[in-house]
Amino acid sequence: MSTVELTKENFDQVVSDNDFVLIDFWASWCGPCLRFAPVFDKASERHSDLVFGKVDTEAQPELAAAFGVQSIPTLMIVREKVAVFAQPGALPEPVLEDLIGQARGLDMDAVRKSIEEAAGDEAGA
């Protein structure tokens, strides 16, 4: 599957309609972003059941700011509307494949429970 350009107009819809979304925050002037792009594109071809989206941080500064993206490229993985991974840096292909495998293996019920417990701990503090 080819990558989807994510904008402030379609971002919420894409994330809401899909259980597994990988998001590449990038910019055209960013050398590491340009080196990571083919790795991201190849992964999108191998994992046609997942949605791969790209956010051009120059064209969509509001999205970058909303997710606290301060360095690009930044890769974010969203499973069932929960950001389960976010890290800056261009990843090599084997590392990206490993991350996808780890994200696929997550027990999302356990993840949500952990988030609820953490929120409860903060509320009680």
The biggest beta sheet is recorded as:
5 strands, mixed
Order of helices and strands: EHEHEHEEHH
Number of E strands: 5
Low-confidence stretches: none
Strand content: 15-25%
- Shape call: globular
Query: How many separate helices?
Result: 5
- Look at the structure and give the mean pLDDT: 93
CATH superfamily: Glutaredoxin
Question: Any guess at the CATH architecture?
Answer: 3-Layer(aba) Sandwich
Can you list the strand order of the major beta sheet? 1-3-2-4-5
Name the helicity range: 40-55%
Determine the structural class based on helices, strands and strand pairing: alpha/beta
Using only C-alpha atoms, the radius of gyration works out to 15 Å
Distance between the termini: 45 Å
What does this entry look like structurally?
With 125 residues, this protein is an alpha/beta fold. The chain has a single domain, classed as Glutaredoxin (3-Layer(aba) Sandwich). The chain has 5 helices and 5 strands; from the N terminus they run E-H-E-H-E-H-E-E-H-H. It has helices at 11-17, 31-46, 61-66, 93-104, 108-124, and strands at residues 4-5, 20-26, 51-56, 74-79, 82-88. Strands 1-3-2-4-5 form a 5-stranded mixed beta sheet. The longest helix has 17 residues, at 108-124. The protein starts with a strand and ends with a helix. It comes from Streptomyces coeruleoprunus. Pfam families: Thioredoxin.
